[in-house]
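Data availability (excerpt). The following record was deposited with the supplementary files.
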Amino acid sequence: MCKANNAYHTLVRTLGTKPLLAALPSPYFDNTSQRLRADMHTLYHFFENCKDIRFGPKKFVPLGIFKTHFHEYVQENNLPHAPWRESFYRAPFKGKKLTKEKAVVLWGGKMADREIVRGLTLVNVEGAPVSLPKKNPDMRKTDLKRSRSDYVAEGTLQFDYE
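Predicted structure:
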């Protein structure tokens, strides 16, 4: 009992605040942990297994389109349905470094002020992403009436075609 207690305290001192899985030598434990997380939470399952997702810091998708695609995926794969609440998506979004925010975006040829998920995009989805404006506090809703060429001329749009 004393040896086990000493080993535990030594491990705590060496790891500090790192998770216990970081101390284990084999990637087996990490892979098993990821599979278990995907089996327990449908959003993790979606992130790990959906072929239409591309992650990246400059990528985005409107929240409504993301939720529709997610719910279709859940239905097709007979996964349990969970209500869309912040408590549901907070941990998976944090783990994948995704944020939910409001932005003026060009999607499917239309400029609109909408909620987006920044950090991923969906491919093979109608209305593929065209561009994401840089954060500009001076941009107003009246700016939505301006043409795309006006934004391009001002350099307020970033293009990401990956």
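Summary of structural features: The chain is about 40% helix and 25% strand.
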